[in-house]
Each structure stands twice: as C-alpha cells, then as structure tokens.
Amino acid sequence: MNKQKRIAAIHDISCVGRCSLTVALPILSAAGFDTSVLPTAILSTHTGGFEGFTYRDLTEDIKPISNHWQSLNLHFDALYSGFLGSFEQIDLVADLFDTFKSPDTLIMVDPVMADNGVLYSIYSPEMAKGMTKLCAKADIIVPNLTEAAFLLEEEYVGEDYTQDYIETTLKKLSALGSDKVVLSGVSFESNKVGAAAYDSITGRVSYAFNDKIDGYFHGTGDVFGSALLSALLNNFPLAEATKIAVDYTHMCIFLTQKAEQEKRYGVCFEKAIPYLIKQLGLLNQ
C-alpha cells in the first residue's frame, strides 16, 4: 500500500453553514488523505445569508502553529489555502508555503474573496490585490470569474463573455505565477455550467460542464476546490480532475435541491461523498 498523503488545509472555520474547513476536511479525508488544518478565522456562521455573525481573526496563531509544525519536521504532499482572515495573513501563508514547500508538494490557492461581482464583506480591494502574491507561489489557482477580475484588476464582465475571453483570462491568471489555472463558474449555454482549465506547460485548455441548477448555493466553491485537489492527488490529469470536481459539485447541488434543504446552510455534500469516492476509483482500494 502506498504511503498516505498529507495535506495542510488553510481555511476559516464557519461553525454553521457548510463551507471552508467544514467542507474541505471531510471531503479530503474521505478521498484518502491525512488532512491537517490551520484555521485562519472562526465565524459563528458563514457570511452569506446570515446577519449578526461573530468573527474571530486568528492571524496571531498562524506563525506559532507553523513553527511547531516545522519543529516536527512535517512533510506535506499538498498545501491548500482558501479564505484568509486578514491582509497580514497573506504574507504569513506565503511564508508557510516557503517553509513547507518541497519538490513533491503541490500548492493550490483558492483566492476566496468574492462572488457575483462583489467582494465579501470583510475583504478590501487592497487585500484582493495582495492575493496575487499568494497566487504567484501556487502550482494551481482556482478562482471564480469575480475573483479573476479582482486578481487581474479588470472590470467584472458578468455573464457577457466569449470563449476567447475565458481563454485569455486563463493565460493572464497563469502569468501571475502558477502553471495551472482552473476557472470556475464558466458557462456558454444557459442550461450548462462548469469550469475551464489551463495548463501553461502543455498549452492545453479544457472545459468541463454539467447541467445548471437554478439558484445560488453557498459553499460550492469549497466543494469544487476540495474535490479538484482530491482528484489531482489521486493522480488524475488536470482535465479529468476538473471534470470530476464539476460533476461532484453538480451532484451536491442536485441532492440539496431534491431534499428541499434551506440553501443558506450550504449543499448536502455529505450525501454525495459515495459518488465522489466512486469517481476517484477508491471503492476497491
């Protein structure tokens, strides 16, 4: 049996509402990985659809945690960052990447900061601009269309774009420093939605789509990113990994809609985990 891979997931904890670490940890663990966590903030709920949520910034804890990990000579097969709790955390997480990066470590950055053309409530344009520093250290970045616009300091185009725009955007994002880019929320037909992937080493652009389900579903970006990383670390090529992530995210949304769950609490990703395990080919291992 191959040695179990270890991941460090650097995200916030939303105590209620399925997103960030409460999504990443179970998905990555179910996919077979020893998943360590480094919380960037603790919120009573996520910030979408809830009012009056509490927020505790954990910036001061990041360096001591990193130092302790370093003293243990820990090795990580992947470093996976998402929502950061403050501007200062960008440099701290960049330093953590430098500390634990080895030739066989995959760094994935999901620049979680915006959606539907708008920054999240605790983010600032300065922080969005600073996120490019972290993206420059990544092997793969996973923004949505809004986050791509902020990273490139361009106007958000909404749903009015062409295939040429998507492919140009992918290449501009890769020029920030990462070899691979997966752009989520891409749609060229009203009834289909998915993602576009670009590998700057091969020059290949690939697309993955599934049926669009109407409505806004919180936490799907974290579901998508975690499934994508699970597939990549199970040695699927980028195009296939993107397809697995798109299909799993669709299944989570489908099951949520079928169960008539209240959308602001996130998607029923737990019920779809057997589907992901099957797609990853892990049932007989």
TrEMBL record:
Entry keyword annotation includes Magnesium: no
NCBIfam families for the chain: PRK07105.1
Keyword annotations: ATP-binding, Kinase, Nucleotide-binding, Transferase
UniProt superkingdom: Bacteria
Transmembrane portions of the chain: none
GO cellular component: cytosol
The Pyridoxamine kinase/Phosphomethylpyrimidine kinase domain, residue ranges: 74-254
Name the UniProt record assigns to this protein: pyridoxal kinase
EC supergroup of this enzyme: transferase
Pfam families linked: Phos_pyr_kin
Any GO molecular function: pyridoxal kinase activity
GO biological process: pyridoxal 5'-phosphate salvage
The enzyme's E.C. designation: 2.7.1.35
